[in-house]
Amino acid sequence: MRRRLKPLAWYAEEKLGFGTFSSLLGITFEDSVDRGGTGHWTAMASGDSCLVQIRNDAVVAAFPFQDSSAFSNNPVLLSTNGDHDQGLAQLRNACGGWESEDCFFLMTDALAAWFYSEREREQKPWQLLRDLGIDSRKPFCAWVASLREQRAMKNDDVTLYRISIG
């Protein structure tokens, strides 16, 4: 058992009762039985982590948000305390098809908000994310730090999961 060395302030103690909170984003892939190199995907989300599907250098699916205006400071998240868990009730689902050479980006909110903002400025942020960490390009952590310094990305946790269909 761990003991606290220092008592928590009353407001921190009160917050403990609410539990911890998190977004959740999941995706599954199934091969098409009759056609090779294609299939279906199914995704579910709670909170503000996002999935973007790229095909032929264009966005073909974005879930659960489609633009940067959808992000807020108070997303509905999953909680470890069932009394405060609204995330399960607002679980969203999506599905679509995939083809060989498609690329999927699963991103937490800070990165997804940056991605959508760049797209709204008619940039192609998926090209940069696709190539991050390959060859001599800037490593992911250094790249995120530079965007934060430029105030182009919110100073929040950042996770990127890139899935390339071969």
Keywords summarizing the entry:
alpha+beta; 9 strands; single chain; four-stranded antiparallel beta sheet
Number of spatially distinct domains:
1
Give the strand tally: 9
Largest sheet: 4 strands, antiparallel
**Helix content percent band:** 10-25%
Count of alpha/pi helices? 4
Order of helices and strands: HEEEEEEEEHHHE
Structural class: alpha+beta
What is the beta-strand fraction? 25-35%
Instruction: Give the spatial strand order of the biggest sheet.
Output: 5-4-8-9
Using the alpha-carbon principal axes, give the shape.
globular
Radius of gyration: 19 Å
Oligomeric grouping of the chains: single chain
Describe the structure in your own words.
This protein has helices at 10-16, 109-120, 125-131, 140-149; strands at 21-22, 24-31, 38-46, 50-55, 58-63, 78-79, 92-99, 103-107, 160-164. It is of the alpha+beta class and 166 residues long. It has one domain (10-164). The strands form 3 sheets. It has a 4-stranded antiparallel sheet. A 3-stranded antiparallel sheet has the order 2-3-7, with no helix packed on it. A two-stranded antiparallel ribbon has the order 1-6. The chain is globular. The N and C termini lie far apart (48 Å). The mean pLDDT is 89.
